[in-house]
């Protein structure tokens, strides 16, 4: 048993929840991408933990690559104006691209990224997000094809997700205590 971190209010998804979420997504992706030319693209840094688990639950051949983006302006709120800090090593033209994200909130970051990737003419372009904060009937700017779980509108950490670069190594997803970021 993992002892809960003192800065965590409540555990949302424990190790076993995560395992079954990722397994289900991997099975769906394996089915949908049979016979295709799959490239997984993880958005650094939050998605690395999910990427590592997800790729091992996918049974069809695949390649992986990484991108890093940085948002302009307010850190807490997505502006949708992002700069590519690290670009792909790979040419994705005519390949079946699946973007791997840790958490989708407004979707503005991903919308920008998808527009950029679409201009490179992949055969297909879809999104797999581990969590989706789709609260209050709010519409995200992009529609993910694969979703691990919906998630409450709270600040969550662990399983790759950070606050000020901390907590990424927690093996579960938890709600961060508000006094930590207040
Ligand atoms: P948008 O609004 O563009 O933002 O979809 C998505 C990005 O914002 C970050 N984000 C979070 N990071 N806990 C985190 O550690 C959260 O609760 C959270 N909500 C949003 C994340 O980097 C994501 O890619
Ligand atoms: Mg992120």
Automatic annotation (TrEMBL):
Keywords: Cytoplasm, Glycosyltransferase, Magnesium, Metal-binding, Nucleotide-binding, Purine salvage, Transferase. Pathway: Purine metabolism; IMP biosynthesis via salvage pathway; IMP from hypoxanthine: step 1/1; Purine metabolism; GMP biosynthesis via salvage pathway; GMP from guanine: step 1/1. Residues 14-163 form the Phosphoribosyltransferase domain. InterPro entries: HGPRT (IPR050408), Hxn_phspho_trans (IPR005904), PRTase-like (IPR029057), PRTase_dom (IPR000836). Its cofactor is Mg(2+). The keyword Nucleotide-binding applies. GO terms for molecular function: guanine phosphoribosyltransferase activity; hypoxanthine phosphoribosyltransferase activity; magnesium ion binding; nucleotide binding. Its EC number is 2.4.2.8. GO terms for biological process: GMP salvage; guanine salvage; hypoxanthine metabolic process; IMP salvage; purine ribonucleoside salvage. Its main location: cytoplasm. GO terms for cellular component: cytosol. Belongs to the purine/pyrimidine phosphoribosyltransferase family. This is Hypoxanthine phosphoribosyltransferase. It comes from Coriobacterium glomerans (strain ATCC 49209 / DSM 20642 / JCM 10262 / PW2).
């Amino acid at each position: 048993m993992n002892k809960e971190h003192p800065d965590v209010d409540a555990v949302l998804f424990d190790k076993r929840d995560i395992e079954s979420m990722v397994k289900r997504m991997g099975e769906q992706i394996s089915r949908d991408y049979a016979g295709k030319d799959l490239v997984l693209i993880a958005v650094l840094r939050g998605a690395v933990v999910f990427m590592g688990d997800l790729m091992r639950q996918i049974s069809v051949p695949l390649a992986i690559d990484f991108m890093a983006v940085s948002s302009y302006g307010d850190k807490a709120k997505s502006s949708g104006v992002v700069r590519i800090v690290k670009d792909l090593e790979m040419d994705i033209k005519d390949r079946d691209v699946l973007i791997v994200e840790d958490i989708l909130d407004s979707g503005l970051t991903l919308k920008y990224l998808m527009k950029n990737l679409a201009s490179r003419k992949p055969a297909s372009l879809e999104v797999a997000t581990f969590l989706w904060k789709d609260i209050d009937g709010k519409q995200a700017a992009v529609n993910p094809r694969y979703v691990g779980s919906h998630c409450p509108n709270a600040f969550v950490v662990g399983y790759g997700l950070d606050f000020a670069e901390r907590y990424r190594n927690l093996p579960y997803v938890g709600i961060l205590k508000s006094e930590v970021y207040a």
